Amino acid sequence: MLETRDLYKHFGGLVATDHVSLSIREGELHAVIGPNGAGKTTLIAQLAGELRPDGGAILFDGKDVTRTPVQRRAASGLARSFQITSVFPSFSALANVALAVQAHAGHSFRFWRRAAHDAALTGPARDALELVGLGSRAEVPAELLSHGEQRQLEIAMALATRPRMLLLDEPMAGMGPAEGASMVDLLRKLKGRYTILLIEHDMDAVFALADWITVLVHGAVIATGTPEEIRYDAEVRRAYLGEETV
Amino acid sequence: MRDHGRETLAVLIGLAFLLALPFLAEAAGKGFYVTLFTRILIFGLAAVSLDLILGYGGMVSFGHAAFVGVGAYAVGILSWHVFDGSPLMTWPVTLEGTENAFVVWPLAMLMGGLFALVIGAISLRTTGISFIMITLAFAQMLFYLAIGLRKYGGEDGIALYNKSQLVPPIDLFDRTTFYYVCLGLLVAFLAVCRRLTRSRFGMAVQGARINERRMKALGFSPYRYKLTAFVISGAGAGLSGALLANAAEFVGPAYMSWQRSGELIVMVVLGGMGTLFGPVAGAAAFLLLEEWLADLTEHWQIILGPILLFVVVFARRGLWGWVAGQGREDR
Ligand SMILES: Nc1ncnc2c1ncn2[C@@H]1O[C@H](COP(=O)(O)OP(=O)(O)OP(=O)(O)O)[C@@H](O)[C@H]1O
Ligand SMILES: [Mg+2]
What we know:
- Chain A: Keywords: ATP-binding, Nucleotide-binding, Transport.
- Chain A: It comes from Skermanella aerolata.
- Chain A: GO terms for molecular function: ATP binding; ATP hydrolysis activity.
- Chain A: One of its GO terms (cellular component) is plasma membrane.
- Chain A: InterPro entries: AAA+_ATPase, ABC_AA/LPS_Transport, ABC_transporter-like_ATP-bd, BCA_ABC_TP_C, P-loop_NTPase.
- The complex is a heterodimer.
- By secondary structure, chain A is α/β, with parallel strands linked by helices.
- Chain A folds into two domains: about 1-75 and about 165-245, P-loop containing nucleotide triphosphate hydrolases (Rossmann fold); about 90-150, no CATH class.
- Chain A has nine helices and ten strands.
- In chain A, β4 (about 55-60) and β5 (about 65) form a beta hairpin.
- The two termini of chain A are about 30 Å apart.
- Chain B has one domain (about 5-325): ABC transporter involved in vitamin B12 uptake, BtuC (Orthogonal Bundle).
- In chain B, about 70% of the residues lie in helices and about 0% in strands.
- Chain B has a two-stranded antiparallel sheet with strand order 1-2.
- The interface of A and B includes residues 88, 89 and 92 of A.
- Adenosine-5'-triphosphate (ATP) binds near residues 14 and 36 of chain A.
């Protein structure tokens, strides 16, 4: 469904993406792990279209989208959530998600009807909020939501664009254990319904959820395989999992 | 949350006051206030149109007076041809001058929108300081272009011999009538903008201001919504220019000066960015201060400066936030 070929990106002398070739099959939950600064966010930014790679190609659904602008990629079904929460702080949670629904509904040249009273927007938006567990918080301005709730809102917005594939950048970043557990439940629900590229530091979550894992270190793929293979891969243990007991 | 009850009350009180103003002014023997408030309504209209892009869209246009000027010249030039008896153009079709308000006012809006389309299409490729500078540069170009219009008075502009004509019993030479026409148009424009800002289109424009990056990640192309808002804003400014030409019975390049653009921004900021009604209050505050303080000193803006600073620092959403309640926008 999504494929990269020899993707390459550098910032000055720093190689952030070092000839990365990935292949993510439809319906699969593919986790990318790696230490801080390994280039995971940079990889997602290139997949989403926000950053332009210096070399290599990105294929979505077999089509070369390497030079397709971010909004066109999003419109074609590639949704992303941000590591650092990126929402519309002054809008209510519902308005945030309704805007995402609107994005998918096509052009927004409708000038008269009040968006907040438009059931075609608020209906699906409420469903998405319900799904991520924010149903009761719909009217609360996003900036007044807790950190964990804002993370959930991120996911709800991505889902509301009715994507075919999700790029999730550390959805559990900064969450407490209870919130983290409910996020894992949510991801389990989403698994299979969407093709997912998941970046996550929580190894328990990754090994519980992933069908396939790619390990990134200094921008390069050092290993890729099933969770079992990765767990016992000597190089991975040395380079990354090292101290952690998995 | 903004206190909607309080805001509605403020709007109703404001409207009642504006409706009663001509009676109050005449009763107090201060008829010139009708003329002054006509100016307030006209500049209020221009400021509201600017708020659409500045407050809602986050586009700091420093050339808004250009669109006011374009609207004013549309009225002025057609009126000049009526007086002169010469046609506006003979090719490809012959067009005569006209003073019919039903023709020239929509035309003023059309021209304002058209110029906004061209200027916006280019300026909106940039953001931040570049955007401010490029809109300013375009406005200056139009300003000098107007000075170069020798036929239409050049630097001296055009003195109108007649006001625009509405249907017969309505005579715009009657200051009270003209006042109410301006009030009606301002109210109509506010009503339209209120719908706009809350529509899907309005949400897209506000989203682009608040978090353009996220908008793109959701699949929006912010440019087209911003440009559309820019055009609507230009059309509103064009209408206010048409009214201004009628109010002053004069059209000149000074309408497009950068100082005028700056004053419009001051009105919006003073009244409250992104509040829609605030800019009307801002225009009122600005022009009343000008009226009262100019008697004291010709450098009355020295006094305006600190007042503006005070409002910006202490009232986040300007005078309107103060009247209608501080609070969160865009629910
Ligand atoms: N815009 C940029 N300009 C210069 N360097 C950058 C830029 N963005 C990222 N980097 C650098 O590229 C490297 C990879 O960063 P990236 O954010 O992709 O890592 P990451 O794997 O997501 O890390 P984390 O786990 O901390 O989120 C880092 O060394 C970072 O400092
Ligand atoms: Mg990261």
